[in-house]
Design a protein that fits this description.
This protein is an alpha/beta fold and 677 residues long. 36% of the residues lie in helices and 18% in strands. The longest helix has 20 residues.
């Protein structure tokens, strides 16, 4: 094809008209690597989906700060607290009914001035919590402190959690250290040998998040409910004064402390450690963390980390921090400043404080002493200074509550995966028994759930010609689809046979534009059959992706950035697919006479293809998906749902499942090859 000097050097790509000349055609045995790149390194740095979502998050956080500045009166603050709590609980998915704890004490260990009871109780029926209860020697009820573990495999028996319990007991307070799901004796995903499948606890939390998201929940929902049941258990003990309950924990335990103090009025005072910062500082430094640390749509809604403290106001909160923490200390001080102003407006500025101690992430001895003093001040009416000291801990096995070290070995035990599957089945029955939505109604509700623009407003982007690479018998043109400022470009490849059919293919793949593009690959087979094929990097794929992607959790950082903004990543990419399809349909064609577009989706991209075709069935001539999950219900039931996180949709199963998409596609031929269980 000729280069057209008349349009500034841009040449006609002749995507689908018969090629007159094959330029730069090389054999498959070419000795040098093909250049299939579309963006420069500098363009890639500024064009990632993650960077775009960061910019959107900063704008939302600015709006939230403006709203915060309007809180002047106690009445306005209380209204703000109520609005945030209502949103928070709803986004978690609500809580189950309280059922009997059915608590049992497995063994008791005597120590100097206190004892440790190894206890098991139910959070939900047949879903057990393992915990260590530290009880000081006392002839009257004492205050109680719940200790939530950070992300350590040994959980309640980790040395820093033992030190929490021993310190509280030595100061005349009971302490309940419990195992979170996915940690300690409560791993939810086991290998055949009965041991945890994943060494990283955050991996297990995020895998539990896959099914939780699909049924409209969050890993945090289970963790918060466990914490509330831990308070129930502590309050049930005759040795504990139920009117004087505190809550603390480090790292992931600091996260949970922040959540629980915001949502449970029984927490009289709290001390979250090594967690609280601001989302702006977190996003700038680290980005989103594991599943429970991201609440769907919270940044877009206007709920920042200082709001966890504000929701607890005016009840006492101590923010415990370390100078060298990876949770930015500057954000901790900003969090404290925002909270201090609100506490002051409520007449209790002395009810919030911050301690910063030199050291890395973790509870330094002085942090622990200060937390203990804070608890005694508000729970025991004693503000005597407590000296920092070294504390000797026990071997973890001494504090086990089960014989095998895993509660999931108990007969009839229900994991979070089981509980999510139960809820998925209940949602399926609800969908089957409700009045059936018409196809247009269901299509519109799915579109809104995905945050995809109205289909009629989606049209072709401007394209930029990058260059051409030849192969034996056909050539590949490189291009970039640009949708304007503030959007992510879509790098693409067009594969051209010498005399292409007017019908063409849009090829979507988990690996982006390069997926199945190799010599002898699936795309080449279509080209050999006489079809032009367009493959693209959807937002966050290929040249617009982060450099490192976890093979188990996929691109979880980009996923959770979108999640915080209330935008399903699947929806963003479905929009991209519709833009690319419009380009394929109308390039060098009158808009009143588009060419037929055949859509292919491979792997998780098969879900993108199905959603695109369901939302706009009139834009496609056929749909082929390969290696794609058969249903969301199947995904929820998987014992270890790896490699799927980046395409799940929050609360999808309340509205539809994947087979419903095929119904919405209608009479268009749909081929499903090698479906995944």
């Amino acid at each position: 094809m000729s280069r057209l000097a008349s349009n500034g050097g841009q040449r006609s790509m002749a995507l689908f008209t018969p090629a007159l000349v094959m330029m730069l055609a090389f054999s498959a045995a070419t000795s040098f690597a093909e250049d299939l790149g579309c963006l420069t390194k500098e363009e890639q740095q500024h064009s990632t989906l993650y960077a775009q979502l960061q910019r959107e998050a900063y704008a939302a956080l600015d709006r939230r700060l403006e709203a915060y500045e309007t809180l002047k009166t106690p009445e306005e603050i209380r209204e703000y607290q109520t609005r945030l709590r209502t949103f928070f609980e709803r986004q978690l998915g609500g809580f189950p009914e309280r059922t009997p704890l059915n608590a049992e004490t497995v063994k008791t260990i005597s120590a100097d001035g206190y004892r440790i009871e190894c206890v098991i109780f139910e959070s939900q029926p047949n879903h057990h919590i393992t915990a260590n209860l530290y009880l000081p020697d006392s002839d009257k009820p004492v205050p109680g402190v719940v200790v939530s573990s950070g992300h350590s495999r040994t959980a309640k028996t980790a040395d820093y959690n033992q030190r929490f319990g021993i310190m509280m007991a030595s100061q005349g307070m009971a302490a309940l250290c419990f195992d979170p799901i996915g940690q300690g004796e409560r791993s939810q995903i086991l290998k055949e040998d009965g041991q945890p499948q994943f060494s990283g606890t955050t991996t297990e939390h995020s895998l539990m998040g896959v099914g939780s998201i699909l049924v409209g929940r969050n890993t945090a929902r289970y963790r918060v409910w466990d914490a509330m049941r831990a308070i129930d258990y502590l309050a049930s003990r005759r040795e504990v004064d139920a009117s004087r309950i505190g809550f603390t924990g480090c790292s992931g335990g600091g996260t949970l402390t922040s959540y629980v103090m915001a949502l449970d009025d029984r927490v009289l005072c709290a001390a979250p450690a090594c967690y609280l910062t601001t989302f702006r500082h977190l996003i700038e430094a680290l980005g989103p963390q594991d599943a429970e640390q991201n609440i769907y749509g919270q940044v877009a809604f206007g709920m920042d980390q200082p709001d966890y403290v504000i929701m607890h106001a005016p009840k006492p909160v101590l923010i415990s921090s370390t100078t060298g923490d990876f949770f930015d200390i500057r954000g901790s001080w900003e969090n404290y400043r925002q909270a201090k102003r609100i506490f002051g407006r409520l007449g209790a500025p002395h009810h919030v404080d911050l301690v910063e101690i030199e050291g890395r992430h973790g509870v330094q001895p002085q942090n622990l002493a200060t937390i203990a003093q804070w608890m005694r001040r508000w729970l025991a009416d004693s503000d005597q200074e407590i000296a920092a000291r070294e504390i000797t801990t026990r071997a973890p096995e001494e504090l086990w509550c089960t014989e095998t070290g895993q509660v999931l070995h108990r007969t009839g035990e229900r994991s979070v995966l089981d509980l999510n599957a139960d809820h998925a089945n209940a949602l399926m029955k609800r969908r089957e028994t409700r009045e059936r939505l018409s196809d247009p109604e269901l299509r519109e509700q799915i579109r809104q759930m995905l945050s995809v623009p109205a289909v009629e407003s989606i049209s072709s982007a401007e394209w930029k010609d990058i260059g051409r690479t030849g192969r034996e018998g056909y050539h590949i043109d490189r291009l970039v689809l640009n949708r304007g400022e503030g959007t992510v470009p879509l790098p693409g490849l067009t594969f051209h046979p010498p005399s292409p059919s007017d019908d063409a293919y849009l090829y979507l793949h988990d690996q982006g534009r390069l997926g199945d593009s190799e010599v002898g690959g699936a795309i080449e087979k279509l080209v050999t059959d006489g079809y032009a094929v367009v493959s693209v990097d959807l937002s966050g794929q290929g040249e617009t992706a982060l450099e490192k992607v976890d093979p188990v959790l996929t691109d979880w950082k980009t996923f959770y950035m979108a999640y915080l903004m209330g935008k399903p990543l699947l929806g963003i990419r479905t929009h991209d697919a519709l833009v690319a399809a419009d380009f394929v349909a109308h390039y060098q064609k009158d808009r009143s006479n588009p060419r037929k577009v055949h859509l292919v989706g491979v792997g998780r991209a098969g879900l993108i293809a199905l959603h695109a075709a369901a939302l706009a069935p009139d834009r496609f001539a056929s749909v082929t998906v390969r290696d794609c999950p058969r249903s969301w219900n199947d995904v929820v039931r998987q014992p270890s749902p790896t490699g799927i996180l980046d395409c799940v949709v929050h609360n999808a199963l309340s509205l539809y499942d994947i087979p419903d998409l095929k119904r919405l596609i209608g009479s268009i031929p749909v081929s499903v090859e090698d479906p995944q269980p």
